[in-house]
Amino acid sequence: MTARTRDPATGISAAEPEAAAVSDRKLRIFRDRGALAEGAAEWLLGVATEKAGAFTVALSGGSTPRALYERLAAPPYQEAFPWARTHLFWGDERFVPHNDAQSNFRMAREALLSRVPIPAGNIHPVPTQGASPETAAAAYQHELMDYYGAEALAPERPLFDVTLLGLGADGHTASLFPGAAVLGEQHSWVAAVADAKNLARITLTYPALESSRLVVFLVTGKEKSAVFARLRRGDRALPAALLHPVGNLWQFVDAECAGIS
Ligand SMILES: O=C1O[C@H](COP(=O)(O)O)[C@@H](O)[C@H](O)[C@H]1O
């Protein structure tokens, strides 16, 4: 991948367009959270089916994607999805044990992994025990590089087929928080960071998240309406607005988030 020069303090790249707005054609507004989960599951199955060979997904954490994961774990997706050739990674993780209530892995395990026939070797959680956050970040980067088969990302061969992302009320995505030094990271694929409550987290950096054929933001609820409007305007103060994948960027939202209900 051609390294983009990012300002280490802001994460804004020299080539950043004035407004990074996503075209209306790539914005899908669903009636409600349930309809979004159904639409996203159908869309994901379509993308997976079209792809030959390994289908590689970076999962989002937080609460929003739970409904999608539960939908994928039920008919018809439970049987129709190509689980045997699907590999799952995480865009970010809290540095807590995998059975902790705050664990993104735990949420995905409860909602999806424990209910579908995905081979254990295809599940690639962020390690969160027996190491420091920095060592865990390095180990996850190593695992990603090993899977990818190279230590440098090539734009024509994205790391992920699909990256699912959420949007925090402060504009964070994955664990890329406003003002954090990691926003300027241009080389590492994974980093250890801390959130506002000083909880250690492991996050994929822009270079890794941007190495995606398709990125989809899943955002729901009235409480996200204001920050989503800022994202639509390409507000550079939001880490989520600074993400420019090598492939296409989609936004799937419900009517409340879009401000039309
Ligand atoms: O902290 C996080 O927050 C964002 C948004 O979460 P949500 O609960 O508002 O959906 C999420 O995308 C990220 O993975 C998570 O670690």
Automatic annotation (TrEMBL):
<dbReference type="GO" id="GO:0006098">
    <property type="term" value="P:pentose-phosphate shunt"/>
</dbReference>
<dbReference type="InterPro" id="IPR037171">
    <property type="entry name" value="NagB/RpiA_transferase-like"/>
</dbReference>
<comment type="similarity">
    <text>Belongs to the glucosamine/galactosamine-6-phosphate isomerase family. 6-phosphogluconolactonase subfamily.</text>
</comment>
<protein>
    <recommendedName>
        <fullName>6-phosphogluconolactonase</fullName>
        <ecNumber>3.1.1.31</ecNumber>
    </recommendedName>
</protein>
<comment type="pathway">
    <text>Carbohydrate degradation; pentose phosphate pathway; D-ribulose 5-phosphate from D-glucose 6-phosphate (oxidative stage): step 2/3.</text>
</comment>
<dbReference type="Pfam" id="PF01182">
    <property type="entry name" value="Glucosamine_iso"/>
</dbReference>
<comment type="function">
    <text>Hydrolysis of 6-phosphogluconolactone to 6-phosphogluconate.</text>
</comment>
<dbReference type="InterPro" id="IPR005900">
    <property type="entry name" value="6-phosphogluconolactonase_DevB"/>
</dbReference>
<dbReference type="GO" id="GO:0017057">
    <property type="term" value="F:6-phosphogluconolactonase activity"/>
</dbReference>
<feature type="domain" description="Glucosamine/galactosamine-6-phosphate isomerase">
    <location>
        <begin position="33"/>
        <end position="245"/>
    </location>
</feature>
<dbReference type="GO" id="GO:0005975">
    <property type="term" value="P:carbohydrate metabolic process"/>
</dbReference>
<dbReference type="InterPro" id="IPR006148">
    <property type="entry name" value="Glc/Gal-6P_isomerase"/>
</dbReference>
<dbReference type="InterPro" id="IPR039104">
    <property type="entry name" value="6PGL"/>
</dbReference>
<keyword id="KW-0378">Hydrolase</keyword>
